[in-house]
Amino acid sequence: MLIYEVSMTLRKCPVCNVPVKLENLEKHIKRQHPQEDIDMRDILTKDEIRKTQKTKAMTKPKARGKMAWPVGIITIIIAIIVILTIINTSPGAGPSVGQQAPDFTVTSSTNTIIRLSYYRGMPILLIFMDLDCYHCGLEAGETLSQLYQTYYSNVQFITIDVNFISPDDTNERINQFKLDKNTPWEYALDTTHSITNDYGVDSTPQIFVIDVEGIVFKRFEGRQPIDYYINALDYVLS
């Protein structure tokens, strides 16, 4: 339970204000804002620093040494269980640009079966978001709804709700969000976080532009100018 609580603690990035898991904040800043000189001690409390250090320590391989029998064997087994738990509950890097987008099958909020590979031959705008993410709401209502009006006949829009932030999302909440934001395409709740993990999503919003061959063409993290999406979609449609 301790591992789950740590992994689901969110902090806003001080540069782009995107909500990021606490233990991934330093990695996010280095990857997305390498030009910024930010000291983590200036933005995290002492307690949060201890939590991130504890999480990192749990993922480090155990040092070898002499162990008493059978305590040593028990310790090894516990360490393996902890490491496997972290691996199975934490997202990896996800697909890079130029790689095949992982296939998945999920039931939408309107009880429709969505399988990514069904849409092979059509570009896909794959959106990862959270109903309670402020920036996701703005991106959906101000940008994505406009894109849909232009590209709905040529591009398949799919939204995966990662549900990082409380309260728990439901199909009823999702459908109301769709109505409020004028985003009528299919949404699906990733109840097991398996899709989220396969795509390496640890913050929202994140959007993948996938070409007709199922290859990732662009990956956007955080809110973006609408022109970025237009340029990417026009390219994969050309």
CATH architecture of the largest domain: 3-Layer(aba) Sandwich
Structural class: alpha/beta
Please list the strands of the largest sheet in the order they lie side by side: 7-6-5-8-9
Number of helices: 9
Layout of strands and helices, then pairs:
Layout: H1 2-7, E1 10-12, E2 19-21, H2 25-32, H3 40-43, H4 46-59, H5 71-89, E3 105-107, E4 113-115, E5 124-129, H6 134-151, E6 156-161, H7 171-181, E7 186-189, H8 194-198, E8 206-210, E9 216-221, H9 226-237
Parallel strand pairs: 5-6, 6-7
Antiparallel strand pairs: 1-2, 3-4, 5-8, 8-9
Helix pairs in contact: 6-9
Structure description:
The chain is α/β, with parallel strands linked by helices. The protein folds into two domains: 2-89, no CATH class; 105-237, Glutaredoxin. Helices cover 41% and strands 16% of the residues. It has nine helices and nine strands. The strands form three sheets. The chain has a five-stranded mixed β-sheet with strand order 7-6-5-8-9, with helices on one face. Strands 1-2 form a two-stranded antiparallel sheet. Strand 1 (10-12) and strand 2 (19-21) form a beta hairpin. The longest helix is centred in the middle third of the chain and has 19 residues, at 71-89. It is globular. 27% of the residues are buried. Mean pLDDT is 85; it is low at 1-7 and 85-90.
